[in-house]
């Protein structure tokens, strides 16, 4: 009997150790406190954010609330600029490009005029400090972030006592919770205080709680009017709480739970009527009624509802036992596939933590920012960055996280009517390359960077893609006016260029790049043409699906036929501009004209091999190393080019260590896995998560392409929960680079078309038939585009297609289909 107990005990220990190691695979781990913000660990529940530093003697929780922005309601649309826009058009069509740029700069100066603004900065609330006397000397230090549970912890030994801290931003209780414990009773003594860099701020104690409050700052011609209130309350097991003027002191406690509630007066982008004190107090009172165990359990369950929808295993190595900062430093020269899996899931963790339904969308830094004037104001930059934030949403089974972006689009479709009408004398709505909490839609940062009226065109693609993945017809009907308003704007602003009589957007630009010295303003850039192509096709298809607006859709179809084709230039490159003006030594971070390759699907290896070759030549010419977000985009491009090894090379470039205080365009990753532009921008994290997904699964080209860009380093692995267009959920296992098992779950039913490597044969009780003709599934309609216009005398080498085959099988909604390789 004793022997049986011993064996059972050993088995239990073995299982426990195995489970512990398994959990560590989804942890960021460190053996020292953070001394820099880019080493601290992020927590968030969509609305509240915290960066945890983990210092034993003086813990800092740097705090954010998603609506703490400078300024006040109001748009930034300039008056009386239409005549100048008309003149800029004339200059461009006359080839007087420098004069056009000069007039653009004069009309929209680099610094905001006194009666306008160029957007408000997202700002920090401040920091909460937990200070322990006598903890400066410590051993056995450990710090981690468990992204499987969205919980961070710190443990160490001081004065012979082991202390532990647990932190989480509760998804269920809407507060930040901290638990302090020790392995010896009456050992927890500390002070609790708060600070804020806000000019208008105040700190006090009342009824045994710590209060911190403030008002956001003035910027340009706007007065800071967002008021925030924070409350921190302590629940003690043993010990005593003493309240001073602006500090709480706890002595000799066995255990302490700290709950932090923050609220603002923000109701919506035009209404600041909420009472922040009442809101913060109500949230805290409700959360305080629950035990820590219940709050912890409810939080983890609410988070895992989203996070557990996808699992990924790419292999493992001894590197995964090292601390995360060391793994980043050694990644370039070490086999560490598990770090790629961790980085993939970290992107999903960040999206869940910064973009919850009913809240604000993730901004340039998600929700994590410790400054009053962060880089680029931490706004919504929509000439790539905001869109990149949401690339993982549908494909990694986080469709709900997309909702805040959709909600913002409804707001922008209202505020954007002002910029469309006032600036362009057009119907519908538009915006330029930035917006903020107040949903501004005018030009930002002057006539060089800001005269790009395409932000709405790109953002509305997310509405259409959501429909393709979910088949939600009610959603499409709800957002049809937003899609239509964008199409109306471009119908009205398209101009006939003189040479080919094509319809083009003018003035505009290819984001942030130039074709002459200091000249970027232009007509008919390739990206603009691609964006309008998608806007027009989306509204035509939506009109058919909803059986509405046929006359309007017909007028759009007429204009669609007059858009310029994509062009191949003298260097066998995909042209960036209407004319062949590309420079072969251009290494600019923006490669906007490859939008047609990704995220759009206008360029395809199987449908447009000439354009694929031209896009590849452009990508090679621009080089690999760049800013973090740019390298994240390049991962996706190389995946679309079906070159998994080159995509993985970009991931290696991205996962190189970034200096903590670096600036410029070096890219890389900080010790806390944050993407470095530098400085920190969250889009690079999201871009790489999307890129890793696209290496494993693509569904934009009329079929579900399995393992299209698998690199040599991912020889064996498995994934579950990835989403494909048409409501399909896909799981795969592969060995030695070959598909071993496939699971398809159909949410909507209908035909499922698979693209497989030609040497893969699948066996199942379900019948696979070799595909013929166009996919009958309506979510896989592939838009035809005009043949490319190849200018100059450059010859294309031709693109070598992989050998694949297409198979069809019919699915029933709600049913799962399993296939195994023969």
Automatic annotation (TrEMBL):
Residues 28-269 form the Glycosyl hydrolase family 95 N-terminal domain. GO terms for molecular function: alpha-L-fucosidase activity. The keyword Hydrolase applies. Coiled coil: none annotated. Residues 291-696 form the Glycosyl hydrolase family 95 catalytic domain. Pfam families: Glyco_hyd_65N_2, Glyco_hydro_95_C, Glyco_hydro_95_cat. The keyword Hydrolase applies. This is Glycoside hydrolase family 95 protein.
